[in-house]
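BUG: 3D viewer hangs when loading the predicted structure for this chain

Environment: internal workstation, default settings.
Expected: structure renders.
Actual: progress bar stalls at 90%.

Input used:
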Amino acid sequence: MEKTPCAIGYSGLAYATDHLKLACIVKTEGESCINPSVKTASDRSYPIARPLFMYTNGEPEDDIKEYLDWIYSDSGQCILKKKGYAPVRDLICP
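Structure tokens produced before the viewer hung:
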């Protein structure tokens, strides 16, 4: 896609590169557009950002619960943030 003039596509924020122009989106006519970023995805001000949903069959238990708890931990969220994904909350990572 990046070599096709005028191509339009959709990709997650973590896959953005210097070769792709990310769309600045206007939510309401007459307002300034909002650029995609970890901040605007996290605070949901970027209108086409969406969270990653993880579903379980009932209340998670055992290894599944441990894994999901780790994902939501500061450690897990910092890994996601360093990879370019928007964490579920503001946090300072080492």
